[in-house]
Amino acid sequence: MRGIWGAFKLACLLAVTGFLLTACSGGGGAAPAPTPSKTISGTAAAGVPIIGTVTIKDSRVPAQMKTVTIEANGHYTVDVTGLLAPYMLRADGYVGGNEYHLYSAGTSADEGGTVNVTPFTDLIVANIAGSIAQTYFNNGNFSGLTAAELTAKSAALRTKLLPVLQVLGVSNSIDLLRAAFNTDHTGLDAALDIFRVSTDPVTQVATITNIITHDTMTSDPVSGSYAGNLDNTTGVAAGVTDIQAITAKFQAFTNLFATSLPRADNPNLLALFDTTFLDSGHNRAAFLSGITTDPGMIGITFTNISILEIDVTNGTAQVVFDVFINGVKNNSAPAKWHMIKKAGIWYLQGDQYIADIDFRSVASYHPSEPQQIKIYSGLHLWIADPGGLGLTSAVVTGHGLPQEGVTFVYDIANQQFQVSGQNSGSDYYMTDAAINQVASTGETYTLRLYKDASLQATYTKTIGKRPYKSTELTPASFPTITAPTLTQLRAFTGGDMTITWTMPTGLINNWVSFGLNDNSGHSAQAGFNTTPELRSKTFTLNPVTATGTTFTPTGRWIYLDGRDSYGGMFSVNIW
Questions:
Q1: In sequence order, what are the residues at sequence separation of 6 or more whose Cβ sits closer than 8 angstroms to the Cβ of residue 472?
Q2: More confident residue, 547 or 248
Q3: Nearest-angstrom CA–CA distance, 526 and 533
Q4: Is the domain defined by 478-574 classed in CATH 3.40.1030.10?
Q5: What is the per-residue pLDDT across 111-163, written as a single tens digit (0 to 9) for each?
Q6: Domain spanning 236-350: which CATH class is it, in words?
Q7: Would residue 103 be called left, alpha or beta, if left means φ above 0 and alpha means ψ between -120 and 50 degrees?
Q8: Which backbone phi and psi does 323 adopt, to 5 degrees?
């Protein structure tokens, strides 16, 4: 998926008691002691750190709230100075591509201490509230909440989970609400790896599932009671060890690309991948050849690794993760890979897709477009056949698309699939009415791949965020190409061309490309993966095709795109 401060001798010292030493004073009365700040800290996680924010709400009417960003390791700290206890907390964000809103609570006794926000704390709060925790938070009727209630409900949940917690080496007396922990797949974090909680929005009953044993237990907030048992520990220890081993594989992958590119035949690299590896239509040899020759892969990291499924007996698993390259999120929605265990060792198998597929939102600005409409928005639906399987067409269905779906046909010249009947390549542009049908986050689309009339495969793909509506976009939403001017571009006949640009706040560089073509189908082009700080790129481009054919250019174009935090594309095209 990049000082050492000098020591200073102080003439006067402010003691920890808050009193100013009068020997250092130039006269006058002592300065008033500053009001000490109060904080609440903890970890917001659901198997892996939640990517998002924590909001704390106090007991005033109207309530006061503060919001802080969750750190990469799941930790957060919020200053509650001036707020009135007791407090409710809400973590909003994403884990494994799924949107999470989890709740927790604390009292004045927790000031200066730890309050976690996890699926466990959400259950604890719900069983105090007698309803889903969201209702308790929104209604603001928690002024009577006590530390004793929180402790009691935390203990009740711990009792139900205790057999598994003991196997994980967790203390028999752990407070699931207040115990400090790290997101390192051990201890309490290991418990969050294997216990999944889902809540029925109608009945408000939560179901807790052990993904290793597949045992379940329910929690009814109205009665505040649990039904069923999660005392089966068969395979739990082995399963946690497997999860740690799987995570270590991705870390080893990251380490090999930290500062340079390894060779494709590097034994440490080869040892990570199974021979059945297949990712986006690339087998192991093709995949390794590609990633070990692309300088843009230096600094790749795999984060937010979450186990979707694991079969300890048969040694299989599905994992989702985010990919970052040079600090830029590369994927719109978390990538999903298969894993297999052979002779006690876990291996990466890739996504097992026979084609290269990438779905995400896209917005495109065409300042040189002669028509009045210059901004387009919709879905980027990239489909390619790198394995040479002879795929001929594809159909994508889902919200915001025509009922019959969007048909793609294979374009031999460009070696990719294009939207049938449109001159927009892989982008399918949508009206605001169509975009309104798309969920704000996590919308899923179905792809069917065909070879002639024969269905070859069916996949589902999730996008991070819905496309933007026309009312949400202006030219300022996009990167700006500052050089060359349109006149300079249209006069270019070959040689060096320096492209410079600016990037709006919230977008990070992704790709810049430059091309020439004529009216006979000849073209010459070059593209470049950009780093976050880059704002200029010089291309040397002449009107000669890859086969050596010289042509007279009649068209020139520049394409530049940036990505938002959801992986959505914002591109500018001039020609």
A1: none
A2: 248
A3: 20
A4: no
A5: 999 999 999 999 999 999 999 999 999 998 899 999 999 999 999 999 999 99
A6: alpha beta
A7: beta
A8: -115, 125
Check if 236-350 and 478-574 are the same fold: no
**H or E element, residue 329:** strand 328-329
Task: Say if residues 521 and 562 touch (Cβ distance below 8 Å).
Answer: no
Domain boundaries, the chain: 39-227, 236-350, 356-471, 478-574
Query: What DSSP state is assigned to residue 28?
Result: S
Q: How many residues does the chain have?
A: 575
- Could you tell me if 498 and 537 are in contact, meaning their C-beta atoms sit under 8 angstroms apart? yes
Please give the Cα distance from 161 to 223 (Å, whole number). 19
Q: Is the pLDDT of residue 285 over 80?
A: yes
CA dihedral angle for residue 7, residue 10, residue 14, residue 19, rounded to 10 degrees: 170
Helices and strands in the chain, H and E counts: 9, 32
Distance between CA atoms of 398 and 446, rounded to whole angstroms? 6
Q: Amino acid identity, residue 364?
A: S
Using CB atoms within 10 Å of the CB of residue 428, give its burial: 0 to 12 exposed, 13 to 18 middle, 19+ buried. Answer: buried
Whole-structure pTM value: 0.77
Closest to 89 in 3D by CA, of 113, 47, 122: 122
For 131-135, which contacts have Cβ atoms below 8 Å and span 24 or more sequence positions? 131/204, 131/221, 131/222, 132/199, 132/201, 132/204, 132/221, 133/102, 133/103, 134/101, 134/103
pLDDT digit string, tens, across residues 301-339: 888 888 989 999 999 999 988 888 766 666 666 789 999
DSSP assignment string, 133-200? HHHHHHHT--TT--HHHHHHHHHHHHHHHHHHHHHTT--TT--TTT----SSSSHHHHHHHHEEEEE-
- Say how many C-beta atoms besides its own lie within 10 A of residue 71's C-beta: 12
